Amino acid sequence: MDEYMSAPQVWGLMCPGSREEVTRARRWTRDILNGHPCAHDAELIVSELGSNALTHTASGSPYGTFQLTLSLSPRTVAISVTDEGGHPEEPHSTEADPDDTHGRGLTIVMALARHLDIAGSQHGRTVTAQLVAPEAGATTC
Fold first, then answer.
1. At what angle are helices 39-56 and 20-32 packed, to 10 degrees?
2. Which string of DSSP letters, residue by residue, matches 54-95?
3. What is the pLDDT of residues 53-69, one digit of tens each?
């Protein structure tokens, strides 16, 4: 049966649209990636993308949800968050003032990720961040 198994492993989590779910999504990510060199960065990305989905889309409405998908291959971690849409503009990074308490999430994700992809429309978007584990001897993603 192993000949039908692919190297990547994929996990999915559906999260109701409440702030507590971001904490649960972080914990879930930490448990799956336990010991992986990109675990800390992945956890931070999950937090930022999940929070953005709740703040800027219909995912944060009383009956909203967002979907989190983790895909893990030997050196790559892909984190995808799919929202319920409701915002006409594509997500973009902004330049926050030093005193601002919001506005840095996507910029942080872009700094951590090797690659960032945004797909979809105002009816729902998926933001995918890809992390690549360091070569042997390096310590960070």
1. 160
2. HHHSGGGSTT-EEEEEEEE-SSEEEEEEE-----SSPP----
3. 999 999 999 999 999 99
